[in-house]
Amino acid sequence: MTEQQYQAYELIFFSLAFAIVVFFHFYFRVEDWDWLLLSGILTALLGLWLVKFIPRKINHTLTRLFNRKVISLDSAQEDHLRKELKERAAIWATASGGLVGSAVLISFIIKNGLPYPAAQIPLTLFEAIGGYIVGRHLGIMASYGRLGHWLKRQGIRIQIKPGYPDGAVGLKPVGDFYFFQAMLLALPVLYLFLWWLMMPLWPRYEAWRNIYLGLLPVAITFEVIAFLVPVWFFHREMQKQKMQLLREADVLGQEINDVETTLIESQDPAQRELLKDRLSFMTKRYGEIEHMPTWPVNAKTWRYFFINNLTLILLPLLSEFIKMLVNPLIKIMNKLL
Fold this sequence. Notes:
With 337 residues, the chain is mainly α.
């Protein structure tokens, strides 16, 4: 079975599950629908649809790195690298899927005990299969998250490009890929946050509000880790290569100083023009090295990532803080009135 066929079966599985749940809900009034469950399944379906783009995106990322000569390989080596990366991801997917699916199954058995209630078997199987599917994709994401370490073990050098116009010395495709993976894990964060905001409108879900508030920082932590841990390898590699390039910058700095002195003393117009051109080139190169970033992420992505996550963290905290201040005042006013 190919990966595309497997993903199609996954979508069919969750779509049927959603259709069954919706059909079941139609037996009740709209007011009695479990919107928490329905929106959760829809979020899972959205995530399942988006994860199918991950293999395509990692291939696109590698293509851009090859085109930029950040990774220099011939065509045969490029094809071999892609093949090995895909095979490695498949191994991680199977192992992670089995682990998560088994964990879900065991947790249900522990909860319901033995002999196992027959009425619980359909739900248990559904949850276990769902756990296997989710686990597979987590395994694939984790495998691609180790890309930098895997390239190093293969002896493949990453060559940074100071002054490259992407603002990340040629490695922006790497940052963009891991940002996309992190945004997939942001779906549960958004789900928890939106429901935390809306739960006061549904008294039946009020008991879940504090639970969702507790789950929110956990989900955000996983999202942040999914972004920062994979790019950390490239950050260290960029730091290492920058330290080596700073030696070149130090030499350039002295040469720039010498050329400026010669330019001041020179009376020959032709020589002065040559010195100016040389000075311009060396100054540009010096600045590119001196101000070279050490993360494969440009400033715009950093702002988006941190502002969004800080907002999701601070708004609930601010809300709870205001509630702590206002509630005692309301009680005092009620007593006075």
